[in-house]
Amino acid sequence: MSDPSHDAEPPRSPLSPSRPAGTGALREALRRARAESAEHGDAVTGLRQADLSRLEILKEALDPVFAAIPPEVDLFDIGLVPGDRPRLFVDMVSFVEMGRDRRLYRFLRDGRNGRVVAAESAEVEPIVQAVTDYVARRMVERERLLASDPEPAAAAAPAPQPVGSGASVPPAGPAAEPQPQRSRLARFVATVLAFIAGGAIGTVVVVALMIAVAKGVLPTAR
Basic and acidic residues compositional bias: what residue ranges (predicted)? Predict the structure, then answer.
């Protein structure tokens, strides 16, 4: 007779629960998906690096063109910007990027009617020529705008004066102040001061005479 203690199923530990049968398959699927994503990312990164390398070649070919621009012309700021679609910017509204086939240079420009393709080529030279022509046109537009600005009027320009026949016009000078009114005021003030001074002197003389009479210095009338 078998021992019932040996036939009984051992108790399961709560720390090691049973796993579904599909867990291994899911892990394998996740491993494959991650590997495919890494391969795709490597491919995208490789394409982006290839675009950057070709745009670097174009930038080096354009360096002499931008070096010839005068320092006072601040219309252009060439720069290579990496990203999902690397771009070589010429200014704020135009740039060069690679086509979908990763072989064609595409010179694009934003305008009033949207984005247009100004030039497209698999070679560097045609794109360099297109960008050079674009830079020259922008510089001519700037010169026209500067030439159309009116010159500031001279601040010290005298106003035109009407001239009569045979009469000479004296040079303009500072406006004369009204002297007669000031002279009348001065005479009035001088008169008042003289009146006050005369009254004071008369008062002093009268008081002195009264004191002299009182002391008998002067004879009194009999």
Answer: 1-10, 28-42
Sheet of strand 94-98: strand arrangement: 79-81, 87-89, 94-98, 105-111, 114-121
CA angle 203, 208, 209 (to 5 degrees): 100
**Residue whose entry in the numeric block shows the structure tokens 């040996």:** 6
* 219: confidence class by pLDDT, cuts 50, 70, 90: low
DSSP code per residue over 126-156: HHHHHHHHHHHHHHHHHHHHHHHSPPPPPTT
Question: Is the four-CA dihedral 176, 178, 183, 186 of positive or negative sign?
Answer: negative
Query: Can you name the residues that pair with 106 across neighbouring β-strands?
Result: 97, 120
**Which CB contacts under 8 angstroms, 24+ apart, belong to 84-88?**
84/48, 85/51, 86/48, 86/51, 86/52, 86/55, 87/55, 88/55, 88/58, 88/59
41 contacts 53 by C-beta, under 8 angstroms:
no
- Identify residue 178 by its one-letter amino acid code: P
* Helical segments of the chain, H only: 4-7, 23-67, 124-148, 179-214
Query: What pTM does this model have?
Result: 0.51
Q: Where are the domains of the chain?
A: 25-147, 183-222
The answer to whether 99 and 106 have CB atoms below 8 angstroms apart is: yes
Give tens-digit pLDDT for 179-208.
555 667 777 777 767 777 777 787 776 677
